[in-house]
């Protein structure tokens, strides 16, 4: 080989890492004994399992180190391979094939060993490289050990995270064999040994078909991404045959045939149960609203008489405002239905209408009912409780029988009206609310305030927009319209056919005073239908004022001598008038006994003897 070419080859070998520490004089001797070989594209240089016959240095071109189709690496100029052939004659562990036309410098084992033996400088240079490589391998090994510890720590954290998750996490391979399952998964599968078992066996038919379809679509390339919510709920059947309903996601990782799938499931049994309960409550609410609407349409707001149509006009006028309304009228006239009509026609109709009867709750409890209380606020207050005003926030509160509100609570109600705030019983926290107030009473509150039993300033705060509901006796033919509707309603409810009211029967309804108003009318008709016979009702025996009673009343002031029976009727009617005027109060100042100038015990005896009962 020419000197110039040898020198170029020596300079090239100095760039080869294996010979980088060897002196040029030693490399010159190596190059003299080495041989340059040329290979075409795809030529095999070393065959796997063949005995190596030399070390090769790539001068130009490139080669691949491989085992059939598995590629280990690609080598370029200054890279070398086959070094083990210099010291042993063992079969090679991989094949080497050219990827293009390639020139190699082949170093024969005998030449290498001779130089090691004879040339101390050559030996020293090669050993320096080997020692350097050994140190690098130590550093790499230490780094690998540290990486292994980090991987183990990360793996431990990941497994801890997976096992601690409340959702069920199941990993499976392309054959649907489970490779990992966390504690939550074992719980819903009711099995602690699910690894290598088919995940489809734990799913109901629909869920198994869905999962198979998703995996097949991904494998066939129909779905580019497998990281999504499952389109349907997943039914899981545990080993003990407990069925649960779950929502979930599925994702993939891996390459080629080594594909794995992660299924994450969340139990939604409680949510489904809650949703069904909510749906049921919504249906009940809708039903009750329809019932209330039907009652309102049938019984409360049937109006042709001018006295009642004026009330409806007032309802329309005030409904759209925030004004406080005071509804006045006798017991049973339908004050609550007027309040509901105002609420339903307002912009608060989608919010609650909370009702409380101030006269039906004991005085020592009504403050807690209205404003709520904290735990331990009083004996028996074992838990905190929200008051009606807080429940009515953004809606309407209907204070029925407001005249019966205890005097010591009236300033607190006044504060709510004026400031929109209150303090629950036993609490120092002030609560702000936005509540529309509608109050109702059968009393003359202004007169009542003069007796010191109702605050006058509260009366004026409530009486922003007064509505007076007329008594049934003052509504003319409305009583017949309402009666007709009630007859139809109760007939349908009791599956009984009742003949419509005749002209004479309607006259009975119009002539009666109806001290109990619409409520008395409702109770009377319900009673009449219960005792009806083949669709016939004897209304003269049902309605208290018969024609004979009325005749006795008309002749009471004449000179005609009254029979004992007529005297009984007259006394009964006189007692009834006194009871109505006193609001059925018997004893005390302004009681019926005082009006009749009788002892209360005497009046009580007469009421029992005459069979007088207070209308419901």
From TrEMBL:
Residues 18-133 form the Cyclic nucleotide-binding domain. It comes from the Bacteria. PROSITE patterns: CNMP_BINDING_2 (PS00889), CNMP_BINDING_3 (PS50042), SIGMA54_INTERACT_1 (PS00675), SIGMA54_INTERACT_2 (PS00676), SIGMA54_INTERACT_3 (PS00688), SIGMA54_INTERACT_4 (PS50045). CDD domains: AAA, CAP_ED. InterPro entries: AAA+_ATPase, AAA_lid_NorR, cNMP-bd_CS, cNMP-bd_dom, cNMP-bd_dom_sf, P-loop_NTPase, PAS, PAS-like_dom_sf. The keyword DNA-binding applies. GO terms for biological process: regulation of DNA-templated transcription. One of its GO terms (molecular function) is DNA binding. Residues 301-530 form the Sigma-54 factor interaction domain. SUPFAM superfamilies: cAMP-binding domain-like, P-loop containing nucleoside triphosphate hydrolases, PYP-like sensor domain (PAS domain). PANTHER family: PTS-DEPENDENT DIHYDROXYACETONE KINASE OPERON REGULATORY PROTEIN-RELATED, TRANSCRIPTIONAL REGULATORY PROTEIN. This is PAS domain S-box-containing protein. It comes from Flagellimonas pacifica.
């Amino acid at each position: 080989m020419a000197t110039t070419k040898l020198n170029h080859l020596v300079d090239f070998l100095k760039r080869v890492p294996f010979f980088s520490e060897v002196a040029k004089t030693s490399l010159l001797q190596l190059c003299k004994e080495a041989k340059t070989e040329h290979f075409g594209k795809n030529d095999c240089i070393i065959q796997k399992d063949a005995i190596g016959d030399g070390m090769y240095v790539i001068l130009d071109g490139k080669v691949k180190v491989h085992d059939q189709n598995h590629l280990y690496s690609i080598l370029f100029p200054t890279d070398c391979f086959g070094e083990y052939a210099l010291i042993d004659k063992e079969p090679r562990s991989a094949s080497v094939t050219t990827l293009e036309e390639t020139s190699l410098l082949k170093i024969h084992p005998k030449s290498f060993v001779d130089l090691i033996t004879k040339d101390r400088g050559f030996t020293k240079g090669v050993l320096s490289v080997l020692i350097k490589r050994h140190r690098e391998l130590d550093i790499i090994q230490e780094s690998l050990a540290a990486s292994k510890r980090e991987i183990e720590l990360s793996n431990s954290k990941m497994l801890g995270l997976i096992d601690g998750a409340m959702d069920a996490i199941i990993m499976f391979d392309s054959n649907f064999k489970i490779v990992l399952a966390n504690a939550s998964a074992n719980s819903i599968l009711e099995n602690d040994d699910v690894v290598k078992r088919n995940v489809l066996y734990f799913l109901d038919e629909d869920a198994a078909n869905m999962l198979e379809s998703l995996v097949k679509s991904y494998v066939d390339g129909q779905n580019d991404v497998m990281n999504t919510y499952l389109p349907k709920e997943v039914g899981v059947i545990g080993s003990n045959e407990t069925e649960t309903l779950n929502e979930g996601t599925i994702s993939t990782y891996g390459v080629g045939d080594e594909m794995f799938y992660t299924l994450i499931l969340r139990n939604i049994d409680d949510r489904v149960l809650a949703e069904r309960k909510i749906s049921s409550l919504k249906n009940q609410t809708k039903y009750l609203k329809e019932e209330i609407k039907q009652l309102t349409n049938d019984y409360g707001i049937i109006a042709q008489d001018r006295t009642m149509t004026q009330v409806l006009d007032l309802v329309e006028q005030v409904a759209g405002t925030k004004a406080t309304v005071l509804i006045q009228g006798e017991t049973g006239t339908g004050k609550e239905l007027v309040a509901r009509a105002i609420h339903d026609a307002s912009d608060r109709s989608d919010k609650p209408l909370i009702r409380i009867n101030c006269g039906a709750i004991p005085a020592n409890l009504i403050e807690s009912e209205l404003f709520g209380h904290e735990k331990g606020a009083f004996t028996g207050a074992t838990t905190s409780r929200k008051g009606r005003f807080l429940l009515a926030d953004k809606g309407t509160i209907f204070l029925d029988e407001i005249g019966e509100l205890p005097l010591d609570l009236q300033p607190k109600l006044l504060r709510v009206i004026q400031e929109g705030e209150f303090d629950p019983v036993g609490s120092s926290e002030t609560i702000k609310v936005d509540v529309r107030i509608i109050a109702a009473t059968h009393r003359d509150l202004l007169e009542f305030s003069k007796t010191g039993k109702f605050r006058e300033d509260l009366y004026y705060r409530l009486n922003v927009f007064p509505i007076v509901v007329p008594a049934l006796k003052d509504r003319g033919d409305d009583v017949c319209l309402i009666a007709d509707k009630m007859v139809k309603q109760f007939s349908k409810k009791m599956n009984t056919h009742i003949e419509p009211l005749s002209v004479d029967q309607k006259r009975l309804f119009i002539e009666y005073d109806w001290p109990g108003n619409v409520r008395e009318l409702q109770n009377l008709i319900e009673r009449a239908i219960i005792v009806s016979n083949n669709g016939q009702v004897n209304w003269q025996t049902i309605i208290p004022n018969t024609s004979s009673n009325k005749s006795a009343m008309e002749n009471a002031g004449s000179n005609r001598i009254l029979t004992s029976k007529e005297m009984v009727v007259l006394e009964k009617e006189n007692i009834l008038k006194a009871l109505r005027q006193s609001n059925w109060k018997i004893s005390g100042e302004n009681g019926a006994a005082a009006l009749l100038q009788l002892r209360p015990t005497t009046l009580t005896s007469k009421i029992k003897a005459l069979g007088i009962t207070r209308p419901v």
